Amino acid sequence: MESTPVNQTSPSVLISVLCNAMKDLPQDKSIGLLIVHIENFDRLVSAFGHRMGGNLISTLATRLRETIRARDVAMRISDSKFAVIVNGAHNDGHLMLAAGKMSQTLEQPVTLGDHNVAAASRCGMAMSPQHTTSAEELLQHAETALLAAVENNTAYELYSKEKSNDIADALGLEIELDLAIARGEFELHYQPKISTESLTPCGAEALIRWHNPNRGLISPDIFIPMADRTGRIEPITRFVLNSALREAADWPTHWGELSVAINVTPTVIDQVDLPGMILGALGMWGAEAARLFVEITEGAIMANPEASLQVLKELRDLDVHVSIDDFGTGYSSLAYFKNIPADELKIDKSFVVNMLEDAGDEQIVRAVIELARSFGLAVTAEGVEDAKTASALGSLGCDRLQGYYYSRPLPQQAFIAWLDDFAQTPVADNSRS
C-alpha cells in the first residue's frame, strides 16, 4: 500500500484505511496501529497562538513522516493526535522500537519565533490479528493503550486485556470523582503544627480525605494526581480552600489564631487564577489572609519557575503565607531559590525520621535550617515521631514541628477535641501523642 501525506482526516477514514490494510494482510504478518498524542499542544497554543501551533504541528508531521517506512501510513486524526499504521509488523517488539524512535524524534525542540519548545508525546499501540481482527476495535485498543501510558506516566504502552480492565476501573474512578464533591464524600483532616519556642499549637495542615461509598477510603496519592491530570483539580482545590477557612473559624482560641495550610499542585499554580480564588474565599468567610498558608513543593515551582514565582508573589502581596513543601527532595538551584517569595521551608519527613541515626540526614536537616535562616525564612519539620527528634530539631533552631508524635491528621471535631485536651495539659507533657 502506498504511503500517504500526514494530512488531517477523521477516525472514520482511518478505520477505512485499516480495513483495507487488514484485507490485504499476508497470513504471517501483522498490522500495527500507533496513536500518538501531543500532550502539551493546547498549552503551547495558549502560550504562542494558533499560527505558531499550526507551525508546530506541521513540523512534527514532517518529522513523523520522515521517521516511518515508505509502506507505512501516517495521519493526523485530531488537532493534537496522529495515527501511524505499521504494515507488515513482525511482532510487538517492532512496534516498541517504532514508538521509541517516534517519541525521541517528536520531542526534539522546535523553534517557534524566538522560543525553542519541546512537544511532550505519548503513544498507545495495538496489533491485528493478535489483539483483534476488527478495525474499530484496533483503534479502540490503541486508544486504551494510550490512556494506560497516561496513567502509568510512560512514553508508550502496548495494549493488553489487563491494561484495558485497569483503564476501565480508572475511568470509573474519574466519573465517581466528578460526583464526590456534590455527594459530600470529601472531608478535611488537620495535622497540628507545634511551636518549638512555646511548645504549643501554632497551626495545622489541611489534608483531604475521600470516603467513597463503593471503594472505601481512597488515598489522596491516587485521586489527586488523577484530578490534576484530568482537569478536575480546580474544584477540589476550591473545596479544600473554602472548607479549611470555614472550619478554622470554629477552632478554639486557647493558643491564639492558629494558621491553616492548604496544598496546591503545579497545575493549579500554572492554570488556575489562584490569587483570585483565594481572595474570593477570604472575603466569603471573613478570614484574615495572614492566617492562611499555601504549600507548594519545590519541584512544582521548578516545573515552570517564571509563572510560579509570579503567582507566589501575588499571594504574598495579599498577605498570604507561602510555604515550600518537601524541601530538599527537588532540584532547585540557589539562583532560583534566592528569588522565591516564601515565608517558610518544610523539611521533608524522609530526612527527619532517621536524622538521629543517619549522620547524612542530620546534616541535611541542619543545612536546610541554616539556609532558611540566611534568607529570613521559618522552618517546619515534618515526620516528627518521638521526643528525642523533637528536642534535636528544637536545638538546631527549627521553628515548628509536625508529625505523629503530636498527632495524626484528625477530622474537624476530633481536632477541636485535641486542641481542648492540649489546653488542659501541662506544657511539659504537651509532646505526648
Describe this structure in words.
The chain is of the alpha/beta class. The chain has two domains: 11-159, Reverse transcriptase/Diguanylate cyclase domain (Alpha-Beta Plaits, 2-Layer Sandwich); 172-429, TIM Barrel (Alpha-Beta Barrel), CATH 3.20.20. It contains 17 helices and 17 strands. It has helices spanning 11-23, 41-48, 50-67, 92-106, 135-152, 161-180, 220-229, 233-248, 266-271, 274-285, 298-303, 305-317, 334-337, 349-352, 359-374, 387-396, 412-423, and strands spanning 30-38, 73-78, 81-89, 110-112, 115-117, 121-128, 156-158, 186-195, 201-212, 216-218, 259-263, 292-297, 321-327, 344-347, 378-381, 400-401, 410-411. Strands 8-9-11-12-13-14-15-16 form an eight-stranded mixed barrel, surrounded by five helices. It has a five-stranded mixed beta sheet with strand order 2-3-1-6-7, with helices on both faces. Strands 4-5 form a two-stranded antiparallel sheet. Strand 13, helix 13 (334-337) and strand 14 (344-347) form a beta-alpha-beta unit. Helix 3 packs antiparallel against helix 4, helix 5 (135-152) packs across helix 6 (161-180) and helix 8 runs parallel beside helix 10. The longest helix has 20 residues, at 161-180. The N and C termini lie far apart (72 Å). Residues 426-433 have low confidence and may be disordered.
Which labels suit this protein?
single chain; 433 residues; alpha/beta; Alpha-Beta Plaits; 5-stranded mixed β-sheet; 17 helices; 17 strands; 22% strand
